[in-house]
């Protein structure tokens, strides 16, 4: 894809960036001249991307990982909090461990990494945080109560954090990417009629979200406490391309 944002000298932490949208963003940050540091349980294989093995649900591990980034690079300019799990279970059948783990990763993990990163941005009086939520936070989805609940809570968390750090010129925004064809999406929807989804809601690719993320990370996004939503945009784009 054509990259139109300059990230030269910038250091961006991406949680959950070993695959999917996070991996596409990490590649774009490097392509823009920046340093992409991925926090994930596994390492990816993208050239030029720095990988740190960390479970974001472990607050101590997150603090240690962020300290390491500061020691190596001296700064953190951007944080994209995308690490998440997406199990499927009906509310009446859900195990307590499944509920707890989902909130620990999807919600607590964002809180811990923000607590570790944002103070450095406050000191620098500069920085951008982007938190991933989901259309499920507003609509719900059968079998996704834990995931949808965690994402709904993140919206409130991000808006509150935005209000608290605005005076320090640190921006916090939210993105709801819509339905994206990633490894996680496919594993969470085994047996689903993906062609029906493509014809109705529309399914995008990970690269489709890179542009909005680069925008939110850049100084061009002079906004905070806002949400970019890409629900149902892909079907319209496909129609436009065909016309």
From TrEMBL:
The keyword DNA repair does not apply. The keyword Magnesium does not apply. It comes from Kribbella koreensis. Keywords: NAD, Oxidoreductase. This is Ketoreductase domain-containing protein. It holds the Pfam family adh_short. The lineage of its organism: Bacteria, Bacillati, Actinomycetota, Actinomycetes, Propionibacteriales. Belongs to the short-chain dehydrogenases/reductases (SDR) family. SUPFAM superfamilies: NAD(P)-binding Rossmann-fold domains. Residues 10-200 form the Ketoreductase domain.
């Amino acid at each position: 894809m054509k990259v139109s944002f300059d990230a030269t000298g910038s250091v961006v932490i991406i949680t959950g960036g070993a695959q999917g949208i996070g991996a596409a963003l990490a590649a774009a940050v490097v392509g823009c001249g920046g340093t992409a540091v991925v926090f994930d349980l596994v390492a990816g294989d993208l050239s030029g991307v720095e990988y740190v093995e960390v479970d974001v649900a472990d607050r101590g591990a997150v603090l240690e990982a962020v300290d390491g980034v500061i020691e190596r690079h001296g700064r953190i300019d951007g944080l994209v909090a995308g690490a998440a799990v997406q199990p499927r279970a009906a509310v009446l059948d859900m195990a307590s461990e499944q509920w707890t783990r989902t909130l620990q990763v999807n919600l607590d993990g964002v809180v811990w990494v923000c607590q570790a990163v944002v103070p450095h941005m406050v000191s620098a009086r500069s920085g951008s945080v982007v938190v991933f939520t989901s259309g499920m936070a507003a609509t719900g989805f059968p079998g996704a109560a834990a995931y949808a609940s965690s994402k709904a809570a993140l919206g409130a968390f991000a808006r509150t954090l935005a209000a608290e750090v605005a005076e320090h010129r640190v921006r916090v925004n939210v993105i709801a990417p819509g339905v994206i064809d990633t490894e996680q999406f496919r594993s969470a929807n085994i047996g689903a009629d993906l062609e029906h989804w493509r014809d109705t809601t529309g399914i995008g690719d990970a690269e489709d979200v890179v542009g909005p993320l680069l925008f939110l990370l850049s100084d061009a996004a002079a906004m905070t406490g806002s949400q970019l939503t890409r629900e149902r945009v892909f079907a319209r784009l496909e129609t436009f391309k065909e016309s």
